[in-house]
Amino acid sequence: MPELAMSLDESVGATSQRVSNFPNFMRAFDAEPERTWQLEVQNHLLKYVKLQRGWDTYNAQPIGWDTGFFALSILNDFMRPRTPIPQVVPSAAGGVQLEWHQKGVDLELHITGPYQCELWFKDHQTPNQPPISLELTDDYSALRRPFDLLTSR
Amino acid sequence: MPDVDDGSIADDHNLLRRVRPDQIVDDANLGIRRPSSAVFKDPELSADSENILLQSGSDWRFPLQGHAGYSLARFRAGTARQLGLPVIHKPLQDNGAHVEVHGRKAQGIANTLVTASWWAHLEPKK
């Protein structure tokens, strides 16, 4: 879609322009970590790690502390001040799912333990591209693009 | 009873799955509240056949008895089978309609089940 490509290019150009005009402001604005998401996500995780087996009224597995810590560490690496806060959902497989369904982006990170993560990513602005579904273990670079879209749109 | 899909749950059977309030997500892209795909990740996904409930004089309200605050998602057995998931009738002592959908549900499969599901009952947001 040429129009989309044009608008993305313009958007990137506009950001670069802002940075060059107000370098100190932009540096400070982007560098200051936003703590709201950490509190909100931690509150959910603290609730979920206390869930007992069968917490979904069926046979859901408990959610381990290490799973919660790993979810936080992923977010620490990729969240930026203007990244929307994820919805945090307990998973019937015994884990947590971080998910965003906004700004034309569907992003889900299903985490069942340290380095046990599944990615689901769909960009509604590129409907011809199939969703990305990946298992992630030690390379999380595939998260960069969806987080950039969520942050910049 | 061995875990075999013997076809006794027909493709057009509606399967009912309880959904915890914190497993319902706001989807701003679609403008709806819907089950998270995390609901469907259980490798032995329990549900109830609505058709068997109706045959026994009950209905969708049965799975919600004793589970205040829960919502109820509905999807077809045939959808699960098309995804390669066996649908197994596993009646319980107090629930003859109990069914299990076996198999690993990768994110793509879980999301297909979300897309194919619709609410039998949706609790209002608190």
Can you walk through the features of this model?
The complex is a heterodimer of chains A (about 150) and B (about 130). In chain A, about 40% of the residues lie in helices and about 25% in strands. Chain A is of the alpha+beta class and about 150 residues long. Chain A has two domains: about 1-30; about 35-150, no CATH class. In chain A, a hairpin with a 2-residue loop joins strand 3 (about 105-115) and strand 4. In chain A, helix 1 (about 1-20) crosses helix 2 (about 25-30) and helix 3 (about 35-50) packs antiparallel against helix 4. The longest helix of chain A is centred in the N-terminal third of the chain and has 20 residues, at about 1-20. Mean pLDDT of chain A is about 85; it is low at about 1-15. By secondary structure, chain B is an alpha+beta fold. Chain B has a single domain, classed as ADP-ribosylation fold (Alpha-Beta Barrel), CATH 3.20.170. Chain B has three helices and eight strands, in the order E-E-E-E-H-E-H-E-E-H-E. Chain B has helices at about 50-55, 75-80, 105-115; strands spanning about 15-20, 25, 30-35, 45-50, 70-75, 85-90, 100, 120. A six-stranded antiparallel β-sheet of chain B has the order 6-7-4-1-5-8. In chain B, strand 2 and strand 3 form a beta hairpin. The interface of A and B includes residues 56, 59, 99, 106 and 133 of A.
Percent of sequence in beta strands of chain A: 15-25%
Based on CA inertia axes, which overall geometry of chain A fits?
globular
> The biggest beta sheet of chain A, please?
5 strands, antiparallel
> C-alpha Rg of chain B, in Å?
14 Å
CATH architecture of chain B: Alpha-Beta Barrel
Highlighted features:
heterodimer, A: 153 residues, alpha+beta, 5 helices, 5 strands, 23% strand, globular, B: 126 residues, ADP-ribosylation fold, 3 helices, 8 strands, 30% strand
